[in-house]
Amino acid sequence: MSAVVAVFAPLDKPLSYEVPAALREQVAPGVRVRVPLGNRRALGVILELASAGVEGLRPVEEVLDLQPLLSSPMLAFLRRAAAYYHHPLGEVLRAALPAGLTAVKTRVNIVTERFYRAACAVQDPPGARQREILAWLRGREEVPLSEISRHFPAPHAVLKRLVELNLLSVREGERRRDPFLDQPVPVDVRPVLGVDQQQALAALLDALAAGRFAQFLLHGVTGSGKTEIYLHAIAAVLEQGRQALVLVPEIALTPQLVARFRTRFQAACARVAVLHSALSEGERYDAWRAIARGEVQIVIGARSAVFAPLPDLGIVVVDEEHESGYKQSEGWRYHARDLALLRAQGSAAVVVLGSATPALTTFYRTQAGDTGYLSLDARVLGRPLPEVELVDLGGRRLSGALAPELMEALSATLERKEQALLLLNRRGFAPYLLCRECGATFRCPNCEITLTYYQSRRRLRCHYCDYVQRPPERCSGCGGTSIEPEGAGTERLEEELAVAFPVARIARMDRDTTSRKGAHQSLVDGMEQGAIDILIGTQMVAKGHDFPRVTLVGVIGADSSLNFPDFRSAERTFALLTQVAGRAGRGTLQGRVLIQTYAPTHHALACAARHDYLGFYEQEIAFRRELGYPPFGYLINLVLAGNQPLQVERCAAELAEELSRKAGEVEILGPAPCPLARLRGKTRYQILLKAAARAPLHRLLGVVDSRRRKLPRTLSLAVDVDPLDML
Ligand SMILES: Nc1ncnc2c1ncn2[C@@H]1O[C@H](COP(=O)(O)OP(=O)(O)OP(=O)(O)O)[C@@H](O)[C@H]1O
Ligand SMILES: [Zn+2]
Fold first, then answer.
1. Which of 9, 262, 368, 455 has the most neighbouring CB atoms within 10 Å?
2. Is any ligand 1 atom within 6 A of the Cβ of residue 554?
3. What positions does the entry give for Zn(2+) 1 binding (predicted)?
4. Ligand 1 touching residue 546 (CB < 6 A)
5. What tens digit of pLDDT does each residue of 114-143 get?
6. 34-78 per-position pLDDT tens digit
7. Does an H or E element contain 524, and which?
C-alpha cells in the first residue's frame, strides 16, 4: 500500500510513501503523517491511498491523527486553491491549518483554567446567590473562573452547584486573551427593516432555501444598514442547522461589528468564535477543533478565517469586499474574497460580498450577470448622505496643513458640541527631513524609501523595515545644519490643532497609537462616549465606524494616493474618500465633508464628492478596457529578490527571455526594478505577465515552476497571481 502525501515544504508536487503493514488501519486521506524528507523529518497530509505497492518508496513513519483533520471537501478546495495560485500544495495546507499542527516539534505547555457558560435553560435556581451569579453569566459569553472571582468572592461552591443543576456548563481550557470576550455585551436593537433592506434580504433567503452555491454583491451606500441584512441572513442559515463565516478586513478594527453579532445571537445560544491575531497557538488550535466538530455556528475573522473548517457552511459574508487587507502580501499571496467564492462553490453556500465601494472587478461581474446585484441606495430612515465640498488648493499657500475653510468648519463643529474626524493618510510628524541647503533627504539604508520623522521621540524611522536612527545634526552630503521636516503627518497635525483649538479634546488613531493592546478600543470608546472632540487619523478612521455624533469629516492630502504608480490608484482613492465621507452624519444630525485637494477635477474626487459610484465606474472601466487591465485582462506578477543586485538583474533578464520565447498570447512587461527597488536590504525586480484569458497565463507558469528549481539559493521568486499592488 502506498500513500500520496502533500509534505509541508516548498515542493512542486506531492510525494509517494510506502504504508507499512502496522499503519494500514490508521491511514486515510486527510490525516497527518510524519515522513522522511531528504535527511530530515517532515509532516504532511495524506491526499490519496493506493492499494498497489510501489518498489523503492520510503515508509511513512507515524500517523498523527485518529480522524482526518481535513474533510474531503476541504481538501478538494485547497487543491483547487493551490492550482489557481501556482503555490505548492504542502505550503497551502500549512497556511490553512493552525500553526501547532504543522511543526515537527510538539507544542508547548499551556496554562489552563476553568470556563463557565450559562446553559440554554430558562429556569432559575433556588438560592439568591446562585440566581445572582447565573444572571450575570447569562449576559456574557464563556467566562473564566478568574474573571468570575473578581466579581463574586469565593464562588466555587455556588458554581459547582449550578453545574450539578445543569444550569452552567464548564470546561477546562487554555486561558483566553480574547479582547472581545471581556467586553460587556451591548443591548440588541432590532430595527424594522426598510423596504430595500427587505428586498435584498428576500433574495438572499431565496438563495439559501435553494441550498445551492450563489453569489451576491450587496452594494449599499455608507450607513444603509448592510450589517442588519447579514444578521438576518445568518439567522436563517442557523435555522437550517448550517454555519456561517463572516470575513472582515482587519479583526482588531472591528470591535463594534463583533459586539453586534454576539448580542444578536446570544439569545439563540449560538456560539460565535472570533479568530484574531492575539490568539495563542493553543487557543487557535482549540478554536479550530471546536469549529471542525460543528460546535461553533458563526466564525468571524480576517482573511485566514476563510480556512475555518466549518463542516456545513451555509453562508459566507465578505464585509468591505473591496479592501486590500484581504490579499496576503507575502508567501502564498491568496485573496480571501476569491477563496471564499471557491470554497462556497464546494459547499453549496451563498456568498454575500458587501461594500459601499465595490471593487471594480466585482461590480463588473454583476453587469455580466455572474453575480446577483442587491442595492441599498439610501441611508436607513431616509437620513441624507453628507454634503461633500472639494477645497481646491491650486495656487494657494497654506500656513499650516489645514485650509481656512476647514478651520472654520472645525470651530463651528466644536461650538455645536459635535465631533469631527480628520483623515491624513500618513503617520509620524513628517514624511521626511530635508536639508534646506542642498536638498538632500534621509533614506533608509535597507530600503529605497525616505525615513519618516517622529518629533515626539526625536527619531527617524523606516515604515517598511523598522530601521530607526537619531535625526542627524548635519547633512551628510553638504555638512549644512538647516535640516527641517517637510510635509505633514498625523503627529504634526495633532500638534497644529492643539495650538489652534486649545480646549478641544484631540486624539489620534494610527498604527503608532494603536499598537498597544486595547488602545484602538479605548479610542472607539472615547468617540462613543463623547470624550473626544476631534479624532485625527490615517485610513484607520475611515473603516466601518458608526459614531452618530460625527458631523464633520475633513480630508487632508486627498491626492497623495493618486500619485501611486499603480493602475488601481484612482479606484483606491475613490473608495477611501467615499468611505471616510460616509462616517459623517450617520445619526440624526446632518453631516458635512471637506476634502482638500490639488486635483478637484480628477474623476476620483469629482465622483466621490457627488457620491457617484456609477459615474466613477463608467469612467474607470473605459480606461481599463482600453489598456486591457482587470477585469478585461488577467495579471500575474513575478518578483525576484536577492542580496546581490547584479545577480537579481541577470536572473530576471534570463527568466524574461525564456518566458518571451514561449509567451504565445501572453504579454510580458519587464523585467524592471520594482517601484520599491530595494526593500529590507534586498534588490527587487519584477516581470508582469498579462493576457486576455487565464489559461495561457497558467500554461506559461509551467516555465516558472521548472525555472524556480534552478535558481541560486540566494534568490527568491514570488509568484503573485492577481496582484493588487505592485510596489
Ligand atoms: N432598518 C433600520 N432602521 C433603523 N436603523 C437601522 C436599520 N438598519 C440598520 N440600522 C442602524 O443603522 C446604523 C448603520 O447600519 P450599518 O452599520 O448596518 O450600516 P452599513 O451599511 O454596514 O454601514 P457602513 O458600510 O457605512 O459601515 C446602525 O446603527 C444600525 O443599527
Ligand atoms: Zn527600511
1. 262
2. no
3. 435, 438, 475, 478
4. yes
5. 888 888 777 788 888 998 898 888 777 778
6. 999 988 999 999 999 988 777 889 999 988 888 888 998 999 999
7. helix 519-528
Taking CB atoms within 8 Å and a gap of at least 24, the contacts of 392-400 are: 392/597, 392/598, 392/600, 393/596, 393/597, 393/598, 394/598, 394/600, 400/488, 400/496, 400/500
User: What's residue 180's pLDDT?
Assistant: 54
Ligand 1 centroid–CA 203 distance in Å is 19
Q: Per DSSP, what are the bridge partners of residue 16?
A: 4
Q: Give the right CATH number for 2-101 from 3.40.630.30, 2.60.120.260, 3.30.70.100, 3.40.1440.60.
A: 3.40.1440.60
In 109-194, beta strands by DSSP E: 112-118, 143-144, 168-174
Question: Given pLDDT bands bounded at 50, 70 and 90, which one contains residue 477?
Answer: confident
Helices marked H in 183-299 — which ranges? 195-210, 226-239, 255-266, 281-292
pTM above 0.90, yes or no: no
Residue 110 confidence (pLDDT): 44
Indicate the DSSP class of residue 175: P
The pLDDT of residue 395: 83
- Quick check: 185 pLDDT over 70? no
> Does domain 383-429+488-623 correspond to CATH entry 1.10.1200.10?
no
Of the pLDDT bands very low, low, confident and very high (cuts 50, 70, 90), residue 431 is confident
Intrachain domains 195-381 and 383-429+488-623 with the same fold: yes
Distance CA 237, CA 698 (A): 37
Q: In what order do the strands lie in the sheet with 387-392?
A: 387-392, 592-597, 550-556, 419-424, 534-537, 506-509
Q: From the CB of 693, is ligand 1 less than 6 Å away?
A: no
Ligand 1 atom closest to residue 257's alpha carbon, by position in its atom list? 17
ipTM: 0.96
With pLDDT > 70 as the criterion, what percentage of the chain qualifies?
96
Q: What is the CATH number of domain 634-721?
A: 3.30.70.600
pLDDT digits (tens, 9 = 90+) for 389-398: 999 998 888 8
Known binding-site residue numbers for Zn(2+): 435, 438, 444, 447, 462, 465, 475, 478
Domain locations in the chain? Answer: 2-101, 112-174, 195-381, 383-429+488-623, 439-480, 634-721
Rounded CA-CA distance 593/598 in Å is: 16
| Ligand nearest to C-alpha 232 | 1
> How many whole angstroms separate alpha carbon 315 and alpha carbon 305?
13
CATH of the domain spanning 195-381: 3.40.50.300
What contacts 189, CB < 8 A, 6 or more positions away?
A: none
Contact indicator for 511, 427 with CB cutoff of 8 Å: yes
Which residue's alpha carbon is nearest to atom 16 within ligand 1? 225
Q: Which residues contact 395 (CB under 8 A, 6 or more apart)?
A: none
Kindly report, residue by residue over 234-264, the tens digit of the pLDDT.
999 999 999 999 999 988 777 778 888 888 8
Whether omega before 671 lies within 30 degrees of 0, making that bond cis, reads yes
Nearest residue to 652 via CA among 702, 711, 697, 706: 711
Residue with cell 498604527: 511
